[in-house]
Structure formats: C-alpha cells, structure tokens
Amino acid sequence: MDTTPALRIGAVNYLNSKPLIHRFDSLAEELATAHPELAGVRLLCDLPSRLADSLAAERLDLALAPAFEALAEPSWRIVSDACVAADGPVSSVKVYFRKPPAEVESLALDEGSRTSAALCRLLLRQRHAAEPRRERLPIGASLTDTRADAVLLIGDRAMHAPDPAVRGDFVAEWDLAEEWRRDTGLPFVFAVWTSRHEEVAPAVVRLLEACRDGGVVCFDSIAAAEGPPLGLTVEHAERYLRRNLRFTLGPRERRGLELFERACREAGLLSDPATTHDA
Hints:
Elements: E1 8-12, H1 24-32, E2 42-46, H2 48-56, E3 62-66, H3 67-72, E4 77-86, E5 93-97, E6 106-110, H4 115-128, E7 133-137, E8 150-154, H5 164-167, E9 172-175, H6 176-184, E10 188-195, H7 202-215, H8 219-226, H9 234-244, E11 246-248, H10 251-267
Parallel strand pairs: 1-2, 1-3, 6-7, 6-8
Antiparallel strand pairs: 3-10, 4-10, 4-11, 5-8, 5-9
C-alpha cells in the first residue's frame, strides 16, 4: 500500500487567481489515473501572506506564493510558468494618499500583502527617498479605519472605488502595477507557483498548467460565478481578468521579476524582516 502523503497545494482565494485553479479538482482526478502522485491532492485557499507562512512551516508542499517571498527564500523554487502578473494597470493593487507621495510619513499595508508591500516601499524610496512608518491594515478594514498618510489595498476589495464620502480625503492614487510599468517598461509579477521541495513531479506541473490553460479560455464563466458575490458586475469581473491580468511567466515577465529582485536587494528589502513580518 502506498503511504505517501497526499500533496498539499495552496492558492490565493482572490478573483485574480481563479483562472489558475480552474477545474482543479476534476483535472487532478483525471490526471491521477495515470499519475498516482496526484491521488488525493488537496487544494487549500488563503491570503497570499498566509500561504507563504504555511509553505515555510511545511503545512503546504507547494503554493501560489507572493513573488517577493519566492525571491526571498533561497531554498524555494518557481516550478511553473503559470503566474499572476500585470502589464499595465492591474486594478486590484492600489495605494491611496492623504498627502502627496513625497510627504508621506505613515503607510498602512494590507495584511494580505507582501509583494505589493515591498513594491510600494520600493517606489516610495526610489521616487521620493521616503521610508514611512508602517502599520498593518487588517483584513476587513477599510480606508477609514486608519489615518495613515497612505494606505495600500490589495485583492478583491481594492477593485471597489472608495466611498464618495471619503474620496475627497485622498489627493493621489497609485495603481502599483501601472506605476512599475511606467518606471521600467516591464510587467510586474505578483505571484508564482513555488515549491519548498528540490524536485517536483512533472505531473504536478502539468496539473498547474492545465488548470491555467483551461482557465484563460473561461473568463466569462469564471466572472459569472465569482464576480457578483464580490459585489462586482459580471462585465467588470470579466474585463478585469481579460484586460488587467497576465497568467503566463513569459520572457518579459521574467525580466520584470529579475529587475524587482535586484531592486529589492539593492534597497535592502529582501534582507529586512520588517518588510513582511512587521508590515
């Protein structure tokens, strides 16, 4: 009897990741008939930052991890060309400023964020030599729950425009992927399939890429199922998936990821525990 533990794979429970796990269970079951290593594989969804923690704690074997975490941990490896990236405005990673960016002294960072937190800090440092005091913005909190000079929101909640009653409190807004592309001319990679194991079975990679390949031709049905529960119209959700996101780690995405790693290392962010854990 095979007593090999079932694989534990973690994914982000955001709209932007749904195409990467499209039909995961059924595809895993189909592939398991020829690849026993996929038998009983489990998909667990959580916040990006918590997935990285679970991978580090060996509660997961593989995860759609924040790109920043994949770069920060030397023993982890990127195992697939399926990813979450943007080549221009992403719409779901935004910074709202109560003061001009050059004058920001305090920054509230979305609890679910690590890659975006690092990118925000990097842009503020590169553009304005700013290193604002940081605080954590809990999941479920809104722009009005903090008086920080700047507030980073990621994921589904960032796709909703601020309430008109508070919109006037903010003097500027950054879409972080758009700002990155403006500065570099390259896409920004937010998340990658990452393993803590040296070797990953080819069947696992095949599963991940089969999910992605099926997902990117089903934006309409994914949007219909996932958009309304998030308070988004089907049209808005489909437009977001189709126009704002990229799901393949191609040559330009790899160059963007390499540049982000180099910039973070030069800025000391990858060696700074406060980048992630003290947010």
